[in-house]
Amino acid sequence: MRRDIARLLARRWRNRAFEKPQRLHGEADTSPSDKRTLWFVTQNHHKYQEARRILNPFEIEIRMLASPKTEIQSTSLGEIAKFAAEEAVKKHNRTVLVEDSGLFVKALNGFPGPFSSYVYNTIGVRGLLRFMRRQTGREAYFQASLALAPPRDSSQE
Questions:
Q1: CA distance 129 to 107
Q2: 118 in any annotated domain
Q3: How many other C-beta atoms can be found within 10 angstroms of the C-beta atom of residue 103?
Q4: Is the model's pTM score more than 0.85?
């Protein structure tokens, strides 16, 4: 599934002009490669390394933008990622990729879902297990949503 997301990104990447290597006074590109830069908004270095490893075969240069992500309260991972990407573009004027994810426990009707980080930081794993003590089913799934946003400034295109 991760490869499918990477292929989709690569296809969109070829169809749009994102951040191109900069030229100084008519000189050669300052970037050693022909790759364009995609900024991954996260403060989690492991998440960044994983994204970099996945996108590298598709010749997408990815850099970490260690900026706090603006999150809205929503039950939709897609809405959260989209809002955070739009806010990051406004703040940094760069092509950004934002990821939001959550753990969805079937016996708890999808809870904690997009609130996984908050739940982990407040009640922890033990607290979540206490919610489930009378549940027989322990099925859960992890879901992630990505939002890609190009800069608004046409000089970046």
A1: 11
A2: no
A3: 20
A4: no
Domain presence at residue 134:
no
pLDDT tens, 92-137? Answer: 999 999 999 999 999 999 999 999 999 999 999 999 999 999 999 9
Is 124 a member of any domain? no
Query: Catalytic residue at 100?
Result: yes
Sign of CA dihedral 44, 49, 55, 61: positive
Q: Token digits for 97?
A: 């990729």
Instruction: Catalytic residue, from 29, 34, 100, 153: name it.
Output: 100
Contact partners, residue 92, CB within 8 Å, separation at least 6: 39, 65, 67
Question: What total of structural domains would you count in the chain?
Answer: 1
Residues of the domain holding 74: 2-100+144-156
